[in-house]
UniProtKB/TrEMBL annotation:
<dbReference type="GO" id="GO:0005875">
    <property type="term" value="C:microtubule associated complex"/>
</dbReference>
<dbReference type="GO" id="GO:0007018">
    <property type="term" value="P:microtubule-based movement"/>
</dbReference>
<dbReference type="GO" id="GO:0005524">
    <property type="term" value="F:ATP binding"/>
</dbReference>
<dbReference type="GO" id="GO:0007052">
    <property type="term" value="P:mitotic spindle organization"/>
</dbReference>
<comment type="similarity">
    <text>Belongs to the TRAFAC class myosin-kinesin ATPase superfamily. Kinesin family.</text>
</comment>
<feature type="region of interest" description="Disordered">
    <location>
        <begin position="30"/>
        <end position="63"/>
    </location>
</feature>
<keyword id="KW-0493">Microtubule</keyword>
<dbReference type="InterPro" id="IPR036961">
    <property type="entry name" value="Kinesin_motor_dom_sf"/>
</dbReference>
<dbReference type="GO" id="GO:0005874">
    <property type="term" value="C:microtubule"/>
</dbReference>
<keyword id="KW-0505">Motor protein</keyword>
<feature type="domain" description="Kinesin motor">
    <location>
        <begin position="120"/>
        <end position="449"/>
    </location>
</feature>
<keyword id="KW-0547">Nucleotide-binding</keyword>
<feature type="compositionally biased region" description="Low complexity">
    <location>
        <begin position="46"/>
        <end position="61"/>
    </location>
</feature>
<feature type="binding site">
    <location>
        <begin position="204"/>
        <end position="211"/>
    </location>
    <ligand>
        <name>ATP</name>
    </ligand>
</feature>
<dbReference type="InterPro" id="IPR027417">
    <property type="entry name" value="P-loop_NTPase"/>
</dbReference>
<dbReference type="GO" id="GO:0003777">
    <property type="term" value="F:microtubule motor activity"/>
</dbReference>
<dbReference type="GO" id="GO:0051231">
    <property type="term" value="P:spindle elongation"/>
</dbReference>
Length: 475
């Protein structure tokens, strides 16, 4: 296995000090309608029954059973069993359109009551600067950011002007650091650290700056994109607190022509997407790599990127058709026995989408997306899901998540169970104005998608997390 690069006996939880995200107030009363019926069972019966139910379906559980004594030791040593005995309550945390307003250390119960609050996906626009070629060709600037930093003005063909509003706009002069601040990525990461599921996706035509925004140049810290900056922030935060123990594991894969290739194990080129009740949709057999420090994440990112490379003549076509998803699974357990919280799994998906220039909007309905040149089922399906989710009439009906691998994997994020932001990258040039308009329209639709973010905490799942944790360590 590729996963066992640290000591299998000690839990891979990172020690840390002075963490000031306090979530003890974020406990919400569990609703009577909740499915978590095993709530009031005593700890051991729940633990054993859940473990044995998963064992019947999994051959790998045999290994798990063999090590049961060891596992119980690990669980109780780490305080997990302690945490497990407490009365679990379902928690949820608040969401606001301006994520920066969330202060986890001061937040009170009322603010966290999501039954009365909903919000929408945050949509940000990033305008890239002109490149040398465009300057040489004399293309003109057709995209302008207004002073409020929220309104974008376009000079459209025929002398028409259009204005559209978004959560925030990063103008072309923004450095990577300014962009990272402007998009409030740190608040999102804080949420992931307390158990939320975060998705951050870059959208736009090929050459509009998606990869630059998400990856950046990994050789120069100044030009680091969102991923390496996020890695830095997360480990700084974890290492400066001592409330919770953390363990971070990462996966990195791409979807190219509806085939999933594991970028950490490139011999796996066609992995299936499966569904189960506790996990939702997931990619089977992905390498999940332990990342104990920033450098581990950076190395993993570089390794994955190098596994993307294919013949140069195909590079453009390739990068414009593949979706790359790096996921950090952030497992954490409270160190303090006083805390009401136990094990959680936060998650962050960083998604660098394929270029959207090959998907054309239907002239007849204006609603569905029709592909023209080549088949990019995932992007097409994403457009259809966004359309359906953003329409109040259709939202309650059937959402076609199952139409593509990408939408299956992102279904939780899109359906509003997590915090999602979309960064739409656009070119400043009049030459690209049609593509820019298309990107902006698509993004405007996404703005209407509502979400209620919750931290999932139910006993069965927790047992599974413990199981996943330890199982990974033992094999
Ligand atoms: P995409 O991933 O959308 O196809 P890229 O991120 O590869 O586009 O960007 C295309 C080119 O433009 C790259 O050479 C990249 O370095 C450059 N670029 C994109 N955005 C910026 C920016 N904000 N500042 C400087 N260069 C940029
Ligand atoms: Mg790219």
């Amino acid at each position: 296995s590729k996963n066992n690069n640290d000591n299998p006996i000690s839990l891979p939880l990172l020690d840390s000090k002075n963490f000031n995200i306090t979530t003890s107030k974020s406990i919400q009363k569990i609703s009577p309608a909740s499915k978590n019926t095993s709530f009031h069972h005593d700890k051991k019966s729940v633990l054993t029954s859940s473990l044995s139910s998963s064992s019947s379906s999994s051959s790998s559980m045999k290994k798990f059973k063999k090590g049961k004594g060891l596992i119980n030791d690990i669980i109780s040593n780490s305080g997990m069993l302690e945490n497990y005995t407490r009365n679990y309550k379902k928690t949820s945390a608040g969401s606001k359109s301006d994520i920066s307003k969330i202060r986890y250390d001061t937040i009170d119960e009322e603010e966290l009551d999501l039954d009365s609050k909903e919000d929408t996906i945050s949509v940000y626009i990033r305008i890239r600067p002109f490149n040398d070629n465009e300057v040489k060709k004399g293309y003109e600037k057709a995209v302008f950011c207004e002073e409020d930093k929220r309104t974008i003005k376009l000079n459209c063909p025929g002398g028409k002007q259009r204005s559209m509003m978004y959560h925030s706009i990063c103008d072309s002069y923004y450095s990577q650091e300014q962009m990272f601040e402007e998009l409030n990525i740190k608040s999102l990461l804080d949420s992931a650290l307390i158990g939320h599921h975060i998705t951050l996706f870059a959208f736009g035509q090929t050459g509009s700056g998606k990869t630059y925004t998400i990856n950046g140049l990994l050789t120069h810290p100044e030009y680091y994109g969102i991923m390496p900056r996020s890695f830095e922030y997360i480990y700084d935060k974890i290492n400066s607190q001592n409330e919770r123990k953390y363990s971070i594991k990462a996966t990195y894969f791409e979807i190219y022509n509806e085939k999933i290739k594991d970028l950490l194990n490139p011999t796996n080129t066609s992995l299936p997407v499966r569904w189960c009740r506790n996990r939702g949709f997931y990619v089977e057999s992905l390498v999940e790599q332990n990342c104990n420090k920033f450098e581990d994440c950076l190395d993993l990112l570089k390794l994955g990127n190098s596994n993307k490379s294919i013949g140069k003549h195909l590079l453009n076509d390739y990068s414009s058709r593949s979706h790359c998803i790096l996921t950090l699974n952030i497992y954490s357990a409270s160190k303090s026995n006083k805390s009401k919280l136990s094990i959680r799994q936060g998650k962050i998906h960083f998604v660098d989408l394929a270029g959207n220039e090959k998907v054309k909007e239907s002239q007849t309905t204006g609603d569905s997306l029709v592909e023209t040149m080549s088949i990019n089922k995932s992007l097409l399906a994403l457009g259809n899901c966004i359309s359906a989710l953003s329409d109040p009439k259709k939202r309650e009906g059937h959402i076609p998540y199952r139409d593509s691998k990408l939408t299956k994997i992102l279904s939780d994020s899109l359906s509003g169970k997590g915090l999602t932001i979309m960064i739409s990258c656009i070119s400043p040039s009049n030459h690209d104005i049609y593509e820019t308009l298309k990107t902006l329209r698509y993004s405007s639709r996404a703005k209407h998608i509502k979400y209620k973010s919750i931290i999932k905490l139910n006993p069965e799942e927790e047992v599974n997390y413990i199981y996943i944790y330890i199982h990974i360590k033992i094999i």
